[in-house]
Design a protein that fits this description.
This is Major facilitator superfamily (MFS) profile domain-containing protein. The chain has 474 residues and is mainly α. It has 27 helices and no strands. The longest helix has 29 residues.
Amino acid sequence: MIKHMEVTDKNVSNSDLNEKNEEETVWPQILAILAGGLGAFTDGVIFSWTSPFIVKIVQNKVDYDISEEEAANFPIIQPVALIITGLLISNLCDVIGRKKVLLFLAIPHVINLLLSAFARHVYVFYAARVCAGIGDAFLWSALPMYIGEVASPKVRGVWGNTLASGLYMGQFAINVVGSYCDIPTTSYIFLPLPILFFMIFIFMPESPYYYLMKKDYEAAKCSLKFLTRKSNVDPEFNQLKHDVERQLSESGTWKDLVSISSNRKALLAGFFLRWSQQFCGLPVFNQYTQFIFQKAGGLVSPRVASMIFSALCLILNIIVVTFVVDKFSRKRLYASSLVPCSVVLFIISIYFYLDQMMPSVDTASLSWLPITALVSYQVVTSFGVTVIPTLMLGELFSSSVKAKGLTVLMIAMAAGVFMTNGIFNLLNTSVGYYAPFLLFGICTVLSSILSFFVIPDTKGKTLEEIQMTLKTAE
């Protein structure tokens, strides 16, 4: 009898050990996130395509007879297409699933690269930028949601910002390749990427949240088994089922997005994060990198400077998401990033003012300042501005309104990109190069103050715990 009890105790102990080992298996979640990140990488290439090629297109009058004013529309058309597409596909993630929406991403990416390769007329380039905006809509409506739902809290803290990391990798890649290759060659180099993304991501699981919303419980369990590599997922399944059912007890209408206090707070926080990110000048720096360096002059050529800038974007993003973002409050990180960001923007504005508006002042001794300021900008924004908004997108909303909430924030982001690019072009031509950076600096100061009152802290919390935090704060 004693021996039997010892054997039983040993079996129980082994069972507990196996269960513990199963709980620590997170690589399938990371694999699914990285597979989605490949789509973000291609999107980053296409989004930042304007950085190396606006200058080349305007200067090349043999292959492209396109003026600077016509080329200035490239970064503006893309967010307009994103807004229109975003409205049309607002419920698509809840209808066909997050995974299928992401698979559609490959189509506009392939068309964009093919159009860019063969384009000679400005309107063909415009069509390519429309496809870029359509791709943005598929990416931003589905990938933040997908990452937030397939990742556990400990995985989400480090890997939840894969979308932004993928975008920065794409930005770096297009600045390097685009600096040394012409448009057709560059397009052919990157054309296999969306095809590779489709071939890999098709084998990834759908979000278990989506299956639970559709009451496909067996499929939800299969998804959980893939993501956790556990043979028994009943505890996780029951907890998720309870959480989703509670969240779906809300009707999930567009009205609920503003009438329910927790949803309203999530929407306000999302709006603030997206607009404060755009109005600190981030899309302008990403899409006009070589243009800005060309106008600023300095010791380093615009081509090399843009590669340094985009490389820093990538390296700092990886460092921050790996070692920083999950160790500090989201709110504190964001505010601590905005304050020095505003200082750098004011310095850039002063330099352009002296260089353009005060010809009597010799700025030759300040030729080191443009590249130094742009590098400093990337350093200070990497600790919050470039990381926190994207990371929190998949965390804020209840399942019942998540698709609608992310659609609204996607449109808000596109509107912000459209407005900042438009303001940049308008103030550049009508006032001076210093004016947009002065405006962005003022906006960033205001954002740093508001961040303490608007942003909830989601670090280390499950999606359900975040909803409870928003509700208890009512």
